[in-house]
Amino acid sequence: MKISTKGRYAVRVMLDLALNNNGECIKVKEIAARQGISEKYLEQIIAVLNKAGYVKSVRGAQGGYRIAKDPADFTVGMILRLTEGSLAPVACLEEGADICERCDTCETLEVWQELYDAVNKVVDGVTIADLVERRNKRLENLDYSI
Fold first, then answer.
1. Among 12, 35, 37, 80, which residue is least crowded by beta carbons within 10 Å?
2. What spatial distance separates the first Cα and last Cα of the chain, rounded to whole Å?
């Protein structure tokens, strides 16, 4: 399984909105500059996040985007499933998949299920608030003494 730039950037955008959440809307141009993402691509990603209700948009001169809820309400898994679709490593584990005729005799199915469970445990166990905390701890641990 490989996470695309769309998925990685969507997580970064949500983190950026959480880190810069001062009550005012944030312009795409500002997010793009901080994250090193093209504005056009960022607009596509934000449109997906907005449609899902993860971000709120405000039009006008003072408009922009802000995170829709508390950062603790969004897991990395939610964002990745929104942008990537299923995180299942094989088609037979995807939600709504037809039952494979070999599932009763498939020696590898357990391995794929364990992998899927492990991925879900990690991405569903980390929230945007956790990423904010990790960033803040990392910055605290930087030693600027000369």
1. 35
2. 43
